[in-house]
Amino acid sequence: MKAVEKTGKTVDDAVSQALIDLGASREEVEVTVLDEPSKGIFGIFGAKMARVMVSLKNGPSQKATNLLKNIFRAMQIQVGIKANEKDHEIQINLEGDDLGILIGRRGETLDSLQYLVNLSVNKNQEVRKKIIIDIEGYRRRREETLQKLALKLADKAKQRGRNVVLEPMSSQERRIIHTVLQGRDDIYTFSEGEEPLRKIIIAPKK
């Protein structure tokens, strides 16, 4: 566990310096106060600085963040990482310039990165946390695009009276299609094929 020792006029000053060195937020660290500050006699003699030990928490959120930092360092790209940990889920948003390389064709690279991080962080863990990685709102925009596509192709299947076959998608994207169309009584959806070429079929009800 990475830790640094810092001094400052106050405990908060010392902690702030440590956070800068660690590149972490206050929620990502544990703080141990080694020495409380004191003014000494007449505010001069025997005055003592605050001294703290600040260490990174080794939780799943920090593991995911550290793994991503190592990956991006190896790729020689600058990426800002913001993690928000909830009870059963960790949402990680990546920020930076020209991050299309991390999204890939229809999000394939982003999905692979997310799979890798989930696999690594949850390995040998009794309690698993779902890790969702996004890049500046890409997944929300992609979801909106898929919802519109689903409705358009459902109408097409109904009007033509025959099945419409979509391109292969990840399980997460297929779930979006199934969900947006599940309330319709004029068509139904099902999946066929093997991963990673599994695809959705939109079929009119006879």
Characteristics of this structure?
three-stranded antiparallel beta sheet; 6 helices; 206 residues; cell shape; Ribosomal Protein S8, Chain: A, domain 1; GMP Synthetase, Chain A, domain 3; three-stranded mixed beta sheet; chaperone
User: CATH superfamily membership of the largest domain, which one?
Assistant: K homology (KH) domain
CATH top level assignment of the largest domain: Alpha Beta
Mean pLDDT, nearest integer? Answer: 89
**Major sheet attributes:** 3 strands, antiparallel
Helix and strand element order: EHEEHEEHHEHEHEE
Task: State the domain count.
Answer: 3
* Residues in helices, as a percent range: 25-40%
Q: Count the DSSP helices.
A: 6
Radius of gyration, in angstroms, nearest whole number: 25 Å
Q: Please report which band the strand proportion falls in: under 5%, 5-15%, 15-25%, 25-35%, 35-45% or over 45%.
A: 25-35%
Question: What is the β-strand count?
Answer: 9
* Coarse shape: elongated
Spatial order of strands in the largest sheet: 1-3-2
Low-confidence stretches: none
**CATH fold field value of the largest domain:** GMP Synthetase, Chain A, domain 3
